[in-house]
Amino acid sequence: MSEIDIDQLANLSLLNIANQERDKLVKGVVEVLDYVKKVQEIDTNEYIPVTVSVRKLRQDEVGSCVDQQLLIDSFSDRQGDLLKTSAINGKEGSYDA
Amino acid sequence: MTLNIRELDASSIVAGIKNRDFSCVDVVSAYIKRIKENADLNAYITVCFDEAMEKAKNYDTQLAKDPQSIGPLFGLPVAVKDVICTKGIRTTCASKMLSEYIPPYSATAVEAIESAGAIVIGKTNCDEFAMGSSNETSFFGPALNPWDKSRVPGGSSGGSAVAVAADLAPVSLGTDTGGSVRQPAGLCNLVGFKPSYGSISRYGLIAMASSLDQVGTFSHSVADAKLLFEVMAGSDGKDQSVKDDVVQTTKPINEITIGLPKEYFSLFFDQEISSSIDQAIEVYKSMGCKFVDVSIPLADMALAMYYIIMPAEVSSNLARLDGIRYGKQAVIGNSVSEIMSRSRSLGFGDEVKRRILLGTYVLSSGYQEAFYGQATKVRQLLTEQYNKVCEQVDLLLVPTTPTCAFKIGEKVDDPLTMYMADIFTVSVNMIGYAGMSLPCGFNKENLPIGYQLVAPAGRENMIFDLGIAYQSKTNWHKHQSPC
Fold first, then answer.
1. Which of B371, B370, B384 is nearest to B309 (CA)?
2. Contacting residues of A for B357, CB less than 8 Å apart
3. What SS3 class is residue B31?
4. pTM of the model as a whole
5. Chain A residues inside the 8 Å CB shell of B419
6. ipTM
7. Which tens digits make up the pLDDT trace of B240-257?
């Protein structure tokens, strides 16, 4: 694994990589990819890819959830029933509670 | 009974409270005193002294009124790793991203211990989002090993290990995704127990890698680990991976057969660790256990598999932390996507970014089948090999770590070398088994050494029985750290 397209990877990952951290991050990622590719040497023709199995699904029923007021109270900044967020495009935004 | 908290395990503390030898307030006060005296260890990110004292006073009143109503952890202070949600108590994941997050609910594991009478005394330091083997990736700085403050306590649950090793809490909760309970337990002379996957609900555990994460415990004694496990195990209806149909089996100690996988013992690890494990094996032999050499050919592939599957799950689980849906928001940005990218870049540390990038790579078009798909197939093969061996033997005995605690800063700039610290622990998570690290000696520098007992789901009680028998014959777990 000689090189990776770090800009494309960062874009997919929703990360901005600063110039001063770029070399260190690329080196670490390349070293790890070089190490882990040895799994490709194993013969797995008889297997299909499987993630973790869910043992049972719960019934599709309406259940209780966290109290709405607790969620509102946990917001870091609010004004009355309005939850304040930081500015986007230079304009202050808010969501109605 | 006098209250010397450095001499008492959890069971003795609960018994002492029940017998009125001392009060809940006495116990909580004693731990608060030790936490304040040892603040330099950086074991805790957040302490809850006022809440803990209030609860202790209420419990003392309750005990006076109704002595029969108390639970198995009544009045017991417990430290909780800061990736496990605690209602009303800041839960940061040791990250700038969640440095102000106060959960509106508690994790099932926390609710379980509190229902049994435990008192949460604080939230412990750890690697950021539980990603690390040394506690050095914490936004709040590293926790220090109480056996040598210039060394790491291990990770990611480093603060939970330090809290118990320095007697800043009698027991603590950690999480173990690739060894994050067992490895620090080994480096801090503790019992570190990772139950089998699906035995304790992960509800309220802020996910790192969902197919690997499991709540675990730190304690001085195996009996305390068993006590906590019995309180927390079982289904809560909120985690569909929880198995509530597993039957626990055990057998007399002298009928137990223990396997020694040759692939583990052929890997490089310190000679002093090897000698201490040999002595532990002799203790078991003296109790009548039978040992056989076994082979798990893919065991040395586990770390490579782990560093594909774990980052893939990390990149998915942490995608929601973008400053809009969850997490600290960067103030400046010209678009929503720019706000998200800036928030993530400012909120995450280097190790988290590295694992997100790795995970994104192994899941990306063109590489997914060769990396992630292949790793999930090899994971099935590895599981089959372990299962086959565990049809012949009851448990496995393997090292916990290749070295004793290393110096702070020694490996932090070399991720691959750091990852090797987990080489003996990751398999257990990959196959969903239970694993326990137990103290078995010290090296010439007086640094602790541990070994693991490993078994499939349903043989947790066999691990407990063996561990309790081992600790009845040895005193390693009674050695106190200098702090």
1. B371
2. 6, 9-10, 13, 15, 25, 29
3. helix
4. 0.95
5. 32
6. 0.92
7. 899 888 899 999 999 999
